Amino acid sequence: MTDYGHDLVFGAFLTPQNRDAQSPVRLAQSAEAAGLDLVTFQDHPYQPGFLDTWTLLSWVAARTERVTVSGNVLNLPLRPPAVLARAAASLDLLSQGRFALGIGAGGFWDAIEAMGAQRLTPGESVTALEEGLEIIRGIWDAGERGILRVDGAHHRVDGAKRGPAPAHDIPVWLGAYGPRMLRLVARKADGWLPSLSYLKDGDLKRGNAIIDEAAAEAGRDPAQVRRLLNVMGEIGPASQGLLRGPAAQWVEELTALALEDGIGTFILASDDPAALQTFGAEIAPAVRESVARERDRAGTAPASSRRGSAAVALRRPGIDYAKVPADLAADAVEPGDRAYGSVRHNYLRSGSPGLLLRPRSTGQVVGALGYALSQDVPLAVRSGGHGISGRSTNDGGIVLDVGALNAVEVVDPRTRRVRLGAGATWGEVAEALAPRGWAISSGDFGGVGVGGLATTGGIGFLGRRFGLTIDHVVAAEVVAADGRVLRASAQENPDLFWGLRGAGGNLGVVTWVEIEAMELGDVVFSQMTLDARDTSGLLQRWGAAVEAAPRELTSFLILSPARRGRNPVAQLMTVYAGDDTAAAVRELELLAAAGPLLDHRGYVLPYSGVVRPEERHHTGGGDPAVRSGLVTHLDEDVSRAFAMAAHSGTPYFLQIRATGGAAHDLAPDATAYPHRHQNFALTAMAASQSSLNALWDAEVAPHTDGLYLSFDTDTRPERLRDAFGDAGLTRLRHLKRAYDPANVFRANFPISPADS
Q1: H or E segment at 229?
Q2: CB within 8 A of 121, min separation 6: which ones?
């Protein structure tokens, strides 16, 4: 018996005929309604009686909601691999991860040549396919630095830009029959996709043997190659041979193919809606049940838990990979997995974790946390991965990534109460709320995760009008260090609720927060560039204008020091949180008077146009050192100190964010974030922590009053006192004693538990 332990998938293989162009679309919808997982179409671009398969796939993806779509198989000789790669990534993004790439080397060469492609021998076509796969995967690997060059005999790219990254790790299935193609499947593909009607007795066994041997030689576990099969037959009352008979016969024979020949995906070649209905609603569930029963009896390990020798060699000490909970194994990523490069880093930090767990429910978060704590390695928790301090990755440890918990749900339309999954990003939130005319103040970049910002502060473009993000959090769900799932609000666990709003990363894994959104229509968004040669004077004038402005106006300033003969400049990003353009222009003119105006662009647009959805793919960013501080005014002393730091040559990025306004409406002890009188947050970024510390401590820190931890990488203990104040830090230490006495959550500015 050959059973690789793949979860069973059932699909349809449909004809893209164009006599009735909507017929294949209706069949695809019927397949989805029948419960099938996959819809595939032949690809014969030279066939005038067919719709173009790629166009059809795109249309079907838009007209369905759940099924994965794929060519069966796409004709590479007539689809340039670099273009195919971008098209595939685009369709995967548009369908939210519902695309698979079934591809072949080409077979009908007279017709292919007639369409303008070069005729290849069988050997040349295999070489061309391998070259094409290298290009396709290279384009998808948007996280790899540098441009793509592949100098193949049949396909080449010379300096192609990589990207976009697909929404998920697109599986590549090859239609293959000959030994050389089968060995290519073993080395480079995710699946083998033959048609049963083309196979002779024993071909499945012989093909599996070739793939298994070649996979082992390449350091892969054979189970990493899914075995798919196009099946043809007839579902009818009487048995007339293999897959020609009643549903019970199909169940028995497909079960045998799964257990004895390792088939994990069955694709029915039929354009009969009744057959698709029976296959999806009756046969597929029965086969799954039958195979699961036999696997339980045999103790078959799931394919998701198996790795080849090459991947096993990259595993890190201190992690028992065999004990990863079964419900987390399929989505887990470890070194050697193709997805590893896209998830190992965060926005500004390079990482090399030994395992990334990606739970999809609160229950799985509990299981992931329990497993992580049983291992002898560091733990990091990640929501969006955009944090400046960068503690959401590590080296050799476990990352608990809640990115899949990204739902945005309206709980109460009357109060505008919204439940946000901790893994959602603020760009996604803004986009979801915009049609209702709602918004939530949330930083300045759409790629920031909800979980991080909504538990630390949230100095954003709407801050002076609406306050910090944490000021509008009304409830949260958190998994505590001991595995308890707790709800925190003013009524339930109010002490925990207080601490989560400012020091949440120290107290548990937040899975969702509930926030009361604000009513907001269009805003005015302004981008200015000012001459900053009089740096100190510019900062003073800009600061005074911001403080005097109505709360609708929030402005951020990025200071670029003089470099390579260029004068220093200040870039202002300003939001006037209202659609009164006349009032906005008056205030913006006052900001522009802070220094000689070099450029100005203004827009009227929804808040979702300012904080836009961004991709989650992070590649690290040089591991910068960052310091921050809060000040009440940009007076002469503060402005001179910040200007001196800018001109010292140590920082390469400096920013000042306006806070205040509505953020002052809460008492300092209302949340764990206590800074309720300061008007500006200062930030500087440099290559060396020691050099930046020396500069900051000598010149800027004496003028600051508190700091914003999310914008700081100085881990000296005194930073905690700057962040929370004496009373707040004492209270947080007692909370740590109650909720995390073992200091499990210590990766991000750890607060030590109070003594007993």
Answers
A1: strand 226-231
A2: none
Chain segment 344-379, per-residue pLDDT in tens: 999 988 999 999 999 999 999 999 999 999 999 999
Q: Which residues pair with 487 in a beta bridge?
A: 477
- What sign does the CA torsion over 191, 192, 193, 196 have? negative
For the chain, how many residues are written? 756
Domains and CATH numbers, the chain: 9-303 (3.20.20.30), 314-401 (3.30.43.10), 522-725 (3.40.462.20)
Mean per-residue pLDDT of the chain? 95
What are the start-end ranges of the E strands in 76-207? Answer: 99-104, 148-151, 156-160, 172-174, 191-192
Q: How many CB atoms lie within 10 A of CB 134?
A: 17
Structure tokens at 134: 């290298």
Tens of pLDDT, residue by residue over 596-640, are: 999 999 999 999 999 999 877 788 877 899 999 999 999 999 999
With CA atoms as reference, report the closest residue to 677 among 713, 725, 717, 720: 725
Contact between residue 404 and residue 345 where contact means Cβ atoms under 8 Å apart: no
**Number of neighbours of residue 647 by Cβ within 10 angstroms:** 15
What average pLDDT does the segment 55-79 reach?
97
In this structure, is the dihedral angle defined by the CA atoms of residues 659, 662, 666 and 672, taken in order, positive or negative? negative
CB atoms within 10 A of CB 667: 9
Sign of the four-CA dihedral 28, 31, 35, 37: negative
Q: Does residue 669 sit in helix, strand or coil? A: coil
d(CA 417, CA 440): 11
Can you tell me the mean pLDDT for 493-505?
A: 96
Q: From CA 281, how far away is CA 634, in angstroms rounded? A: 68
Q: What is the dihedral of CA 744, 747, 749, 750, to 10 degrees?
A: 20
464-496 pLDDT, tens digit each:
999 999 999 999 999 999 999 999 999 999 999
Q: Which residue type occupies 370?
A: G
Residue 628: Cβ within 10 Å count: 28
Query: Contact 27/273 with Cβ under 8 angstroms?
Result: yes
- How confident is the model at residue 145, as a pLDDT? 67
- How far apart, in Å, are the Cα atoms of 325 and each of 329, 402, 637, 668? 6, 16, 57, 43
- CA 652 to chain CA centroid, Å, is 28
Q: Quick check: 423 pLDDT over 90?
A: yes
Compute, in degrees rounded to 10, the torsion defined by CA atoms 742, 745, 746, 750.
-90
Stronger pLDDT, 139 or 749, i.e. the higher one: 139
Q: In this prediction, what percent of the chain has a pLDDT beyond 90?
A: 90
Report helix angle 284-298 to 247-261, nearest 10: 40
> Which residues fall within 8 angstroms of residue 260, CB to CB, at 6 or more apart?
1, 2, 3
Q: What 3-state DSSP class applies to 150?
A: strand
pLDDT for residue 623: 87
Distances (CA, A) of 322 to 5, 222, 307, 319, 325: 15, 17, 10, 9, 9
In the chain, the amino acid numbered 132 is G
Determine the pLDDT at residue 341: 86
CA distance to 310, 315, 455, 481, per residue, from 510 (Å):
35, 28, 8, 11
